[in-house]
Amino acid sequence: PAIDPQQRWNRALETTTAAGQTDIDAQLITNVEGFERIELGEGFIDITTGFGDMTWTDDRAVIREIRSANGHFVELDGTWFDEPMNLPTTVSFEPLSGLESPESVQAEGTEDVLGVPTMKFTAQLPPDGVVMGFSTEETTVFDPTTGSLTATIWIDEADRILRVLREYATRSTDGDSVEAVSLFVFDGFGPATPIDVPETADAIPAPA
């Protein structure tokens, strides 16, 4: 018999959480009161541990962000910094966050992802702007627990999630539009790769 969409969603989430390391392409788009910010990332993450190595590009700079058992580090213009705080891009190390509480899961048919056949599912999630990659400054003008959050996932025949799309919308305290879209695409799963952390990084505090 055909599996219930909610059960398929939950099974895929469990399978992918335990799948280990994957290459990842990421897009984070936020629009707060007409100000748009776009971050494009690529690298690898270990979905099970939340560790990884990502390179991010926007209209201002290219940064490399590492999270490992040794800490959280950022490279900017050739200098490594020990980063004690989460950045907007840090959400990429936990790309499945919040997917464990879906409502109204719907099967949306089949679609290929990177040439792999998948089943597409959509669901409503509890509103949570924190997982969308907003900066700390951006969240001062709206309540990230308000609004709507829709998630779409694409599941392969091995019950692994290959793509995660989130779409968030709410209003600022002034009544202006606040929107965000995040997209993560996973390509291949396997054992973890050692993450090289620069020896100087933990001696250099991140700039305020």
Structure description:
The structure is a single chain. The chain contains 1 helix and 11 strands; from the N terminus they run H-E-E-E-E-E-E-E-E-E-E-E. With 208 residues, the chain is mainly beta. Strands 6-5-4-3-2-1-11-10-9-8-7 form an 11-stranded antiparallel β-sheet. A hairpin with a 4-residue loop joins strand 2 (35-46) and strand 3.
Quick gist of this model?
This protein has 208 residues and is mainly β. Helix content is 6%, strand content 49%.
Identify the strand order in the major beta sheet. Answer: 6-5-4-3-2-1-11-10-9-8-7
Helical run tally: 1
Low-confidence stretches: none
How much of the sequence lies in strands comes to: over 45%
Mean pLDDT: 92
Number of strands: 11
Q: Shape, please? A: globular
Q: Which structural class do the helices and strands define? A: mainly beta
What is the rounded distance between the termini? Answer: 57 Å
Portion of residues in helices?
under 10%
Q: Main β-sheet: number of strands, strand sense, barrel status?
A: 11 strands, antiparallel
Rg value? 18 Å
The ordered H/E elements are: HEEEEEEEEEEE
Features:
eleven-stranded antiparallel β-sheet; mainly beta; globular; 208 residues
Write the layout of secondary structure elements.
Blueprint: H1 5-17, E1 21-32, E2 35-46, E3 51-57, E4 62-68, E5 71-76, E6 79-82, E7 103-113, E8 116-125, E9 148-155, E10 161-171, E11 177-190
Antiparallel strand pairs: 1-2, 1-11, 2-3, 3-4, 4-5, 5-6, 7-8, 8-9, 9-10, 10-11
